[in-house]
Amino acid sequence: MGARAQLHRQHSTNPYGWPRWVFDQLDLPEKCRILELGCGPGYLWLENRDRIPAEWEITLSDLSLGMVREAKENLRESRQCSVFKVIDAQQLPVADASFDGVIANHMLYHVPVIDRALSEIRRVLRPGGRFYAATNGQDHMRELREWRAKLLPEGIDKGWGRAEKSFGLETGEGQLKRWFAEVRLARYEDALAVTEVEPVIAYISSFIEMDVSESAEQKLRRLLEHELATSGTIRITKDSGMFRAVLKAGA
Fold first, then answer.
1. pLDDT beyond 50 at 156
2. Which among 206, 249, 234 is positioned nearest to 5, based on CA atoms?
3. Pairing mode, if any, of strands 55-62 and 31-37?
4. Which of 12, 82, 95, 105 lies at a C-alpha separation of 20 to 30 Å from 218?
5. Residue 155 pLDDT > 50, yes or no?
6. Cβ contact 200:144 at 8 Å
7. C-alpha distances in Å from residue 104, one per residue of 39, 54, 100, 134, 221
């Protein structure tokens, strides 16, 4: 498991996990076809395998062949998750009006041209279909950004804060309303309370494109150790949520 996913899994304060919460937002009929874009290892369905209706037909897709293979292996016993494809969200190789629901769980901000992807998602949804797009807000992990800024020169991180700038909780509604009706946002209440220094260092390092000097890493370590000694935990803000957008009949 990657450093980022491990930090969230082990130190989140909300005991009701993100995959279960996301599944709760899916107000879809008992019989429907669903497409997930950017499925990653398939955790959404793996952690809700006891809740998937028997007549759902789920297609999992990702731009990464490795992720598609991992999802297929993780879900090999699921009858509902039966189709796995390598797909670019900007050019969906499926017919018009093919799906009742499309899900983009923390992935839309990775797409180079978001409007192209939204146009394609709208095209493949049936009238009345729903699009679910999860993302982060401006305050998400802000303490980590502040610590990183104290240690490193500008311009060497891997798109830190890209979600908030390209498709975030503050900007997503306006982007979605160009293509969909009845856009609404649900927020997920959570934070990180970390009791170790190393997972935070690993998380920050995963965003850095170049080796960090030993002195900078030691400075970061001292900063985090002081925070831990002073407060008992390293507290980190989380700001995530999910948009639901509906395609009106006749649109």
1. no
2. 206
3. parallel
4. 12
5. no
6. yes
7. 8, 22, 14, 6, 35
pTM for this entry:
0.89
Higher per-residue pLDDT: 251 or 242: 242
Q: What is the share, in percent, of the chain residues with pLDDT greater than 70?
A: 88
Q: Which residue has the tokens 């409007």?
A: 115
Q: Residue type at 129?
A: G
In the chain the domains, ranked by start, together with CATH numbers, are 3-246 (3.40.50.150)
**Cβ neighbours for 224, distance < 8 A, ≥ 6 positions apart:** 147, 197, 200, 201, 234
Q: Which residues pair with residue 103 across a beta bridge?
A: 36, 132
- DSSP 8-state code for residue 90: T
Report the length, in residues, of the chain. Answer: 251
Query: Which residues make Cβ contacts (< 8 Å) with residue 227, sequence separation at least 6?
Result: 234
Contact predicate 32/126, CB 8 Å = no
The DSSP-derived string for 73-85 is HHTTT-SSEEEEE
The answer to whether 184 and 243 have CB atoms below 8 angstroms apart is: yes
Residue type for position 13: T
pLDDT per position as a tens digit, 7-47: 888 899 999 999 999 999 999 999 999 999 999 999 999 99
Phi/psi at 241 (5° precision): -175, -175
Q: How much is the average pLDDT of 58-72?
A: 97
